[in-house]
Amino acid sequence: MTQILQTPFGFASTSAEVLVGVHLSGTRALVTGASSGVGIKTARVLAGAGAAVVLGVRDIDAGKEIAARISESTGNRDVGVGRLDLADLGSPRTRTAEIRSRILLPDPRRGRGSSHARAGP
């Protein structure tokens, strides 16, 4: 039997409401369409919750300006920009590979609490 997940959130809920009390430090988020509208709002809320955020944008200069505003408004200095054009099928692969090469993952051979890390994928 399928169990329905029930939450206090609905169609009118905002990302800020959903993330109240959620701490995302230690996580990385890639936000597409982050140069306008919902993309900016989503990136700002994720950064405010402590996530390292990469803005996936076509226009790098506009993205840098938005990243600076998000960093200033949230106090999170780990907001970056990467060129991402979803009309070009190679662009997401390139961006993902670049992000993975910069992420340090815990080394499972040393246990969860270890300060030793290895470069991902």
From TrEMBL:
Species classification: Bacteria, Bacillati, Actinomycetota, Actinomycetes, Streptosporangiales
Region Disordered: start-end pairs: 98-121
Pfam family, one: adh_short
Name of the protein in question: NAD(P)-dependent dehydrogenase (Short-subunit alcohol dehydrogenase family)
InterPro entries listed in its UniProt record: NAD(P)-bd_dom_sf (IPR036291), SDR_fam (IPR002347), TIC32 (IPR055280)
